[in-house]
Amino acid sequence: MSTGSQIGRAVDRVDAHAKVTGTARYSAERRPPGTVHAVLVGAQVANGRVTDIDTSEAMAVDGVLAVLTHRELPRIATRPAVVPSLAGTSAHGQSLFPMQDDRVYYAGQPVAMVVADTLERAEHAAELVGVTYAVEAAITTIEQGRDEAFEPERIFGGIVPGRTERGDVAAGLREADVVMERVFHLAANHHNPIETSAATAVWEDSRLTLYDTTQGPTATRLSVAELLGIPPSDIRVVSEFVGGSFGSKAMIWSHPTLAAMAAQYVRAPVTLSLSREQMFTGSGHREEQEHTLTLGAREDGTLTALRHRKLSPTSCFDEWAEPSISPVSQLYACPNFEGVYNVFRANTMTPTFMRAPGEGSGAFVLETALDELAYELGVDPIELRLRNHADTDPETGDPWSSKGLRECYERGAELFGWGLRDPIPRSRRDGNWLVGTGMASAIYPVYTPMSPQRARARVYADGRAVIETGASDFGTGVGTIMAQVAAQALGMETEAVAVHYGDTELPNTVAAVGSAGAGAVSSAVHTAATALRERLVGQAVADPESPLRGADPAGVAVAEGRMFLREAPETGETYSDLLRRHMMFDADALGEWEPPAQDTGYGMATFGAQFAEVGVDPDLGLVRVRRLTGVFAPGRVLNRKTARSQLMGGMLWGMGQALLEATHMEPQQGRWANASLAEYLLPVNADAPDVEAEMIEVEDRVVNPLGVKGIGEVGQVGVAAAIANAVFHATGQRFHDLPITVESVLAKL
Ligand code: MOS
After folding, report:
1. What is the three-class DSSP state of 379?
2. What does the pLDDT look like over 154-184, one tens digit per residue?
3. Which of 90, 380, 500, 542 is the one with CA 20 to 30 A from 251?
4. Which run of H or E residues covers position 723?
5. Atom number of ligand 1 nearest to Cα 357
6. Domains of the chain listed by start with CATH number
7. What does the CA dihedral 535, 536, 538, 543 come to, rounded to 10 degrees?
8. Residue range 66-105, pLDDT digits in tens
9. pTM confidence score
C-alpha cells in the first residue's frame, strides 16, 4: 500500500535515453526552416584598435548574407554590468559588449560576425575578413602585471569584499610557536564542456525565441532583453538539453544577443555556435593566481593566525577574482584572520565561475599548508584538523545549520585505510613507484537564491503527473530529481511523473549555479506538489460523494496515487476517481518557495573529507593517482545515483586540476597558446583511478524544505591538496604550484 521513498532512490536520468540514442536536440541543432549560420571573427591582437576591416573578399563568398563589424552592428540599449546569476536577474559575464567601437581589449574579442547559408561557407568567409590593427603592448600574466596590482573594493560580481579581517593577525603570529609562509601558483584553467556555447535565434515579428545553451534560461531572457532594449516578455528562451557547463554557461556572454542581432539583420533564424577555440575566449575562465599564505600555530597545532593574499589578473573593465580566501577563512577555527585580494588590469576577458570557484583554489593552498604544519609538528593530519575543528562559523560565530565533517573524516579514514599509514615520507614503494597517501578537507558554501522559486504540478485523470519549472538541466540530473521530489509529495511512483523544464514559458526559477540548483528546484517542486496534494485532499474531504468526506485533511495520507485515512487505509480513493467524478481532466497548482533571507543566523556549507593515494615514478616524473576516496555530508540526498556521479565527476575534476589542467598564455602575443582539446590536458578514462564517493546524510532544517545542501562542486574541493600531500608523502618533496607536471616533478627528484 505504501509508496516507498521516492527521494533518495537511484533513479536513472530522465534524459538518459534521449542523450544516449542521439535524439536529444541541443541549441545549435535547432533548425527552424531557413536557418542560417553566424560565425564570429576574434581579434588577433590583445590590445589596440581596429583601424580597418576589409569585408569585400568575405562578402564575395557564395551564400554569404552579411558581414557585421562595429560599423554595422546596432548599438546595445544598455551597457551590461557584471551580476552573478544567483540573483535571478540579468547575468552579464562582463561589462564589455563587442563591436560597439573599434577598441580591442583582449585577443579573441569578437570584431566581426559573418552570416551565411551554411556553416562551412560562414567559417570560410570568416577567414577572409581582413582586419588591420593599431597594436599596443598587452599585459596578460602575473609576471607582467604584478606591479600594477591594486586592492578592489569588491570581487566576484560584487558579492565578495576585497578584504576580510577578524581579530589581530600580528598578535596571533606573535603568540605562535610555529610561523610558516608559503607562496603558491595556480595556472589558468578553462571549463571545456563537450557542448560548446551556442544559440539559435528566431524572430516572429517583435517576438524572439532563443534556443540557448545556458545554466539559467531566465538570466538569458533578462540579459538579452536589457541589451536589445525590448521587454523580457517578448523573449522566450528554451534550453532543453545543455551539454555540460561547469560555470562557463552560468553567465550570459554576448553570443545569444549577437545571434538575435544577426537574425534581425538578415531576417532569418540564425545559429551562432562558438568553436572549441572560441570557448577559450568566449565564456570565461579561471584566472591565473598567486597565493601567499602565512600561518601561525601553537605547538599542539591550534591555529593562532592566518593571513592570505591572492594576486590575479582581471579584465580591463571588471574586477573579478574567484573568492579563494573564503574557504581559508571559514574552514577552521582561527581567531585572527586577514584575507586580501589584489588584482591588476589585464588584456583578457573577465574571468568567471568555474567549478568550485574559489574553494577549489583556496582549499589547495590551506590544505597543503596544514599538511606541512602536521609534518612540522609531528601530528597526524586528521588529528591536526580535528584540533582546529570549527564548531561554529569562524566568520560570524553563528552555529552551523548542519555540518558532519567529523563523521566524514572518520568514515573516510576507515574506507581509505588511513590508520595503516606510515607517515614517514618516501617510506613505501611498489616496484619502481614511490607510493604515498594524503588527505584534505572540503568545504563549499550553501548559496540560496535571492528570489522566489516557482514550479507547477499537475495531475491528470489518468493518474499521471507533470511537473514544470523553467530551470535547465546542464547535466547535473536536476530534471530527474524534479520527478522524484514531486512523486514523493504527491504519493506516486517517480515513473508516473513527467518533467518539463528548460523553458522561460514555465514557472520561473533562478539559474542553477553555485551548487544551488538542486536546492532551489527541489524546494519549488516540493512546494508545488505539496500544494496540489493539499488541494486534492481538500477537495476530497469536502466532497459528499468521496469516501474521505468529512475527514481531517491532516489524517489523510497519499501513496500510489491514492488518498486514504492514515488510521484506516482501506478508506480512500485515487486522484483519478476524484477528478473523473468531477469531470475534471486535470488539476494543477503553482508553488512558490520563498528562500530564507540572506542572513539566516546560521553558517551554511557542505563539508567533506578527501583522501588520495598516488604513485610517483622518480625516473619519468609521472604521478599516477591510484585511489581517490571522498566522503561528503551534503544534507539530504535526492538521488543516490546522480549525486554520486556529481561527486565522482568533481573528484576527477580535482585530479585534473592537480596534475593536468593549465591554459598557457603566450605573453608577447597575449594569446592562449593551447586553446584546443589536443593541447589543453584533461584526465581521460585511462588516467582515472578507482574513485570511491560516499555520502553521509545530515539533517538540515535551515537551508530549504528538504535540507538539500548541494553536491555539484564540493567533490572537487580539496582533491588537489590531497594529491599534492600524497606526492609529498611519496617523494619527500613539496609542490606549491598547480598543475604538478612531469617537468616539475623531475626538477625536484
Ligand atoms: Mo557554478 S562554477 O557556480 O556554475
Report:
1. coil
2. 999 999 999 999 999 999 999 999 999 999 9
3. 500
4. helix 719-731
5. 2
6. 16-21+449-593 (3.30.365.10), 355-447+600-748 (3.30.365.10)
7. 140
8. 999 999 999 999 999 998 777 788 999 999 999 999 999 9
9. 0.97
Q: Is 355 in the pocket of ligand 1 (CB under 6 A)?
A: yes
How would you label 271-296 residue by residue, b for 16+ Cβ within 10 Å and e otherwise? bbbbbeebbbbbbbbbbbbbbbbbbb
Verify cis geometry, omega within 30 degrees of 0, for the bond prior to 739.
yes
Cα–Cα distance list, 237 to 201, 221, 606 (Å):
9, 6, 32
End-to-end CA distance of the chain: 66
Output phi, psi for 686, to 5 deg: -65, -20
- Residues 371-394 as b/e (b if ≥16 CB within 10 A, e otherwise) read bbbbbebebbbbebbebbebeebb
> What cell was used for 424?
614517514
91 lines ligand 1 (CB under 6 A): no
List the one residue out of 620, 612, 537, 632 whose CA is nearest residue 579: 537
Which of 159, 213, 353, 444 to mutate for ligand 1's pocket (most ligand atoms within 8 Å of CB)? Answer: 353
At residue 1, the pLDDT reads: 38
d(CA 49, CA 130): 14
Neighbours of 692 (CB within 10 A): 18
Nearest-CA residue for ligand 1 atom 3 is: 514
Tell how far the Cα of 250 is from the centroid of ligand 1, in angstroms.
Answer: 6
Cell matching residue 319: 574586477
Which is nearest to 62 in space by CA: 18, 130, 114?
114
Within 10 angstroms of residue 174's Cβ, the number of other Cβ atoms is: 12
Burial (Cβ within 10 Å: 0-12, 13-18, ≥19) of residue 351: buried
- 667 contacts 143 by C-beta, under 8 angstroms: yes
110-116 and 36-42: which strand pairing? antiparallel
Q: Which atom of ligand 1 is nearest to the CA of 712?
A: 1
DSSP 410-424: HHHHHHHTGGG---S
> How far is ligand 1, taken at its centre, from the CA of residue 105, in Å?
25
Q: Which three cell numbers stand for residue 692?
A: 570511491
| CB distance 373 to ligand 1 below 6 Å | no
pLDDT digits 0-9 by tens, 572-600:
999 999 999 999 999 999 999 999 887 89
CB 494 within 8 A of CB 487: yes
Ligand 1 midpoint to CA 653 (Å): 13
Q: Give φ, ψ of 345 to 5 degrees.
A: -75, 125
Residue of 513, 646, 711, 716 best suited for mutating to test ligand 1, as the one with most atoms within 8 Å of CB: 513
